[in-house]
From TrEMBL:
Coiled-coil ranges per UniProt: none
Annotated OmpA-like domain residues: 65-183
Alphabetical list of Gene3D superfamilies matching this protein: OmpA-like domain (3.30.1330.60)
Protein name: OmpA family protein
Cellular localization per UniProt: Cell outer membrane
Amino acid sequence: MKFIILIWVLFISACSTQIVEMTPEPTVQKYDLSDSEGDGIILARDECPDSNVGAKVDNKGCGSQTVYTIRHRLDVNFDINSYQVKDIYNAEIESLAIFMDEYPEVTVIIEGHTSVRGSAAHNLKLSENRALAIQNILINKYKISADRITAVGYGESKLLANGNDNVSHQKNRRIVAEISSDKSLIDMKWTIYSVDKEAE
């Protein structure tokens, strides 16, 4: 009988569950596992916590940028012995002014040129007046700061066409201005709303 009781006690003991307190104090979280930016990188290893929303980031949470070079060119032609700017070039000059407004760090050199007709001294002065005519429009009409514009006259020293016919002379009576600026764009993640360049 004692043997049966002993067996029964051992059986009851084996079926009972004993709870052992393994962590007497709450575990303190050592690292910040949150992602306040929503870029998929936890703050504990995010080295760029201020990256733009939706930006494409690396394993350290840092985004990248692609630099694009944007260029703008102005070409204006003049009548014989004239520095009067024709109305047909108003849109091109306005486009240059808009470009300079968009990129306030750029400066422009306006080059005035002439054909070989007339004396070298006269042509040099005429080319300067042509460059100044464009400069004055940019300053007075479009409020571009004067310190961003340089007007230079080259006279007949930089011919575009070497012929002695009317077409060549017309091509040489010109203004040329070309400027460029680098524009940085943040690389963004592809989403279902993204538009591929090929599809634009």
